[in-house]
Amino acid sequence: MILRSAPIARALTICLPRASRSFLTGSSTRSNQNRTFDPIRTPNDLHTLTLLSAADNRPLITFWSASWCSTCQAVKPLVTSLIEDEKVGQAEGGLGFAVVELDSPMIGDLGVKYMITSMPTLLAFSRQEAQMETKLIKPNEMKNKEFLREWLLSEAKRGGRAGGSGGSLLGSLFGGQH
């Protein structure tokens, strides 16, 4: 997707995290590389990244954390390594990844909205829909590298299509895959 309107492109450049700005100048073909975004500190940050991921037909993996959470600090490097270093999910179309900083003063009630009841939590978004049925909340599962790899692969295979709350009917009506 190439944005042809300069005012729209400028507006998106201002509000998108640094890692996603390449979206504005990229070619019209989708890159299946995994993308790591700046931390989410406001509800608008999450909204922007879910929009970007939906437009890119790429699931967004969110890691809900707080600076004081020692378990979060132990799990985050494992998740990051699988996505960035081992590139888990790239062959399936790629993943977006961002940490949601729940202790950010501007985060508001975002944790309540997505029923984040423990930290860390891994929650995938597909077509802007939170995939509540696959949310991970058990630290022992997140610390198990093979379990985590399989979860990430499963979310990547979803490919941003037909999330748990629907989407397949419209995709079928308009020729989309599901």
Automatic annotation (TrEMBL):
Residues 54-134 form the Thioredoxin domain. InterPro entries: Thioredoxin-like_sf (IPR036249), Thioredoxin_domain (IPR013766). Transmembrane segments: none annotated. It comes from the Eukaryota. CDD domains: TRX_family. This is Thioredoxin domain-containing protein.
